[in-house]
Predict the structure.
Amino acid sequence: MKRTDRKSSCPINFALEIFGDAWSLLILRDVALFGKHTFKEFLSSEERITTSVLTDRLVRLEERGILRREPHLTDRRSSAYVLTEKGLDLIPALLDLMEWGTSHDPASAGHRKEAFLDKLRSERGPLVQEMKEKVRLGGAVLV
């Protein structure tokens, strides 16, 4: 049986209990950075998440208030997942992970985004606010 109580009152533990697995972070990346919103779009990511794991993570992120499921605008059979305000507040953390991964992985795709990373380093506050607004309106940061 899966543990449902908090392990501690540590703020890092709290964050990890909500979105601290690789699949959840990749889903959040796909929504915020690449504008993916549907189950099918998440399945198309190069990391090849399984349908059962994807279903579980989407449910968990929705239950924890990070994602909100809405009817798809053009396909009545489908749902769209969007970041809530609580989810939008994770954009700086995603950017920190992107910057760290690019700095420490010579093969990182982040090296193709050097202009973006330079702007992030020099204009972080305004850039994060601009990104949140873009994602809030259904857009994406890197597409």
Summary: The chain has one domain: 11-136.
